[in-house]
Amino acid sequence: MQVKGQSSAADKMEVNQAKQEHLLALKVMRLTKPTLFTNMPVTCEDRDLPGDLFVRLMKDDPSTVKGAETLILGEMLTLPQNFGNIFLGETFSSYISVHNDSNQVVKDILVKADLQTSSQRLNLSASNSAVSELKPECCIDDVIHHEVKEIGTHILVCAVSYTTQTGEKLYFRKFFKFQVLKPLDVKTKFYNAESDLSSVTDEVFLEAQIQNITTSPMFMEKVSLEPSMMYNVTELNNVSSSSESESTFGGMSYLQPLDTRQYLYCLKPKPEFAEKAGVIKGVTVIGKLDIVWKTNLGERGRLQTSQLQRMAPGYGDVRLSLELIPDTVSLEEPFDITCKITNCSERTMDLVLEMCNTRSVHWCGVSGRQLGKLTPNASLAIPLKLLSSVQGLQSISGLRLTDTFLKRTYEYDDIAQVCVVCPYSSPES
Is 288 in contact with 308 (CB distance < 8 Å)? Predict the structure, then answer.
C-alpha cells in the first residue's frame, strides 16, 4: 500500500510540472515554397438569366489570368496552409522561434532540435551554445535544413531549457511527427551482350524504369549512371544530329504523375579487367543511379540508388568466343573465322579441338587437333576455315573441346550466324 501511495504522489508531481506555465513559448513552422492560387470559374451562356454577369465578375477578380479568366489556374501565389508532403531526397527546412512571453529576463536559454528516424537520431541545431539572456518580448530564431534520406515516420524533437530570475531551471519539449513518402519508383533490368569482337568485350546494357508516383509533375534535371571502377559507361538516351545532341524525350523533360520513362546505358569492362576472365565472373557491381529533379516552384530533390549488382553469365571452365567472322559469305566458298578460347578455371588444361559437320555448314581442316596446355586465365586464338552448302542465314555449330586431363568434353553450338548468298545471278528470261 505504501508503494502505491508513493507512486501516486510522484504522478501528481509530474502532472503539476506538466501544467506549469513556462515563461518561453516555442513555435515551429515548416518552410516551403508558395503555390499558385487556383480559382473555380463559374460561367454560363449569354442567353441565360445571369447574362455576362459571371464573366464580368471573373474579369474583376485579381486572382484570375487576364484574357483567360475561365482557366482554373490563377496568377497569384498563396502561402501553404498545411504541413504538406515531404518526399525522399528533398530538403526539409523548418523555422524555430523561442519567444519570451513573460515580463522578466530569462537566462541561459538552450534550444536543441533533433530529428528522430527509425534508424538514427540527428542533431539539426545550428548552434549548441546557450544564449546568456533573453529580454521580454524578444525571441531566438533558428532555421534548420536536412536532406531527407529515409522513408517512413520522422519526429522533430525541439527541447528548450532556461533559468528564471530566481535561479530555477526549467525544461520542456515538443514533438512534431511527419511522414516521408517515396517520390519515384525505380526498376532496373540487365541485359548481357557478348560481342564477337575483342574491342567491345562483354557489354552490359542497363535499363532503368523511373516512374513519378507523386501527384505533381517533375522536371527531370539529371538521370545518370555512376559506374564502378571496372566499367566505362555510355548513355544511350540522346539522339545525335548534325549540330548537337538531343534527348530522346524531347526538349521539355517533364515527367507527369504516374508516367514512366526508360533510360538505357551501355557498360563495357575496362581493358585491365576485361583481360582477366575471373574478375568479372560471378556477381559484379555495376554502379549506382543518380537522379535529380525539381518540382512546383523549383524545389530540388535528389536520389541515389544503392550499388546495382548483376549476375554475370556463366562460362563454365572454358569460354569460346569469336574474334573475327564475316557477315556475308558466298555459297560453297570457304571463309575464315577466328575463335578465342579462354581457360576460366583455376587449373591448367590440355585441350583437343574437334569439328563436327552439320547439314548446312562443313568444316575444312583436320579434326582432333591438339591445342596444347592452357594455363588459368590464359587465352588462345585459333583460325578456322569452313563453308556452307545452303543459302540463307546459317548457324555455325559443331565445335567440341576435350580436356584430356579430366576426360571432359565441352560442346559449342549456335556460336554465331552468317548470311550465305549465291554469287551467281540467273539471267532474266
Answer: yes
The CA–CA distances, whole Å, from 243 to 115, 136, 222, 239 equal 50, 67, 22, 11
Residue 57 pLDDT more than 80?
no
* Burial degree of 76 (CB within 10 A; 0-12, 13-18, 19+): middle
Residues 265, 228 contacting (CB under 8 angstroms): no
Domain with CATH 2.60.40.1230 in the chain: 184-237+254-312
Domain 184-237+254-312 -> CATH class: mainly beta
Query: CATH for 24-32+82-181, among 3.90.170.10, 1.10.3720.10, 3.20.20.70, 2.60.40.10?
Result: 2.60.40.10
Distance of CA 275 to the CA centre of its chain: 30
Which cell numbers hold the place of 285? Answer: 557491381
Q: How many Å apart are CA 4 and CA 181, to the nearest integer?
A: 45
- Of 258, 92, 119, 112, which is closest to residue 180 (Cα–Cα)? 92
Q: Is 250 exposed, middle or buried (0-12, 13-18, 19+ CB in 10 A)?
A: exposed
Task: Write the class of the CATH domain 318-421.
Answer: mainly beta
Taking only the tens place, the pLDDT of each residue in 356-397 is 998 889 999 888 889 889 888 888 999 999 999 999 999 999
Asked if pLDDT for residue 414 goes beyond 60, the answer is: yes
Q: Grid coordinates standing for 41?
A: 470559374
In 118-228, where do the E strands start and end? 121-123, 131-134, 139-147, 152-163, 169-181, 184-193, 203-212, 218-227
* Beta pairing, strands 86-87 & 169-181: parallel
Residues 256-315 have pLDDT tens digits of 899 999 999 998 888 777 665 555 555 578 899 999 999 877 888 999 999 988 766 666
The ranges of the chain annotated as CATH 2.60.40.10 are: 24-32+82-181, 318-421
Integer Cα distance of 320 and 337 in angstroms? 13
pLDDT for residue 39 = 67
